[in-house]
Amino acid sequence: MTALYVLIGLPASGKSSWARANGARLRACVVCSDDVRRDLRAHGRDAQDSDLVFSEVERRARAVLQSGQSVILDATHSNRELRRYALQLAAEIHAHRVAIWFDLPLSVCLERNARRSERGVDDEDGPFFPPSEALVRAIAELSQPPGLDEFDEVVSVGL
Known about the structure:
By secondary structure, the chain is of the alpha/beta class. It is built from six helices and seven strands. The chain has helices spanning 15-26, 33-42, 50-66, 80-93, 106-119, 131-141; strands spanning 3-9, 28-32, 70-74, 96-102, 122-123, 126-127, 153-157. The longest helix has 17 residues, at 50-66.
């Protein structure tokens, strides 16, 4: 059965690393919001326009799912509203909905994020986010963890 794996967690919680490590095993194509932002930026488009970014994420995921292949959606998906597009897509395609919940303490994510800033603003593990912006905002939003009322399966990834 085709599956849609929705990664949910703070920036620097390990989502992109997990996607790279598990994509082949799950026979899933990774669709990453950071990659879409890079592509938009390279084509002179507004990479900060979340509506534009996630309409492209959804378009790419839809094409892969319609081909019969599973998809790993690599983005923060920090609250139920931000996950709605993925769940609607899974329902349309009749894909198994799997939440991969990165349940790590904020302190771990802050430390990892600081290491990213030392290596460069935009490296292979994703972009560096100033803690006062994305991390603090995301931790407030992650008070809505995924549940079985949204997903067919919830897998928790911790330390």
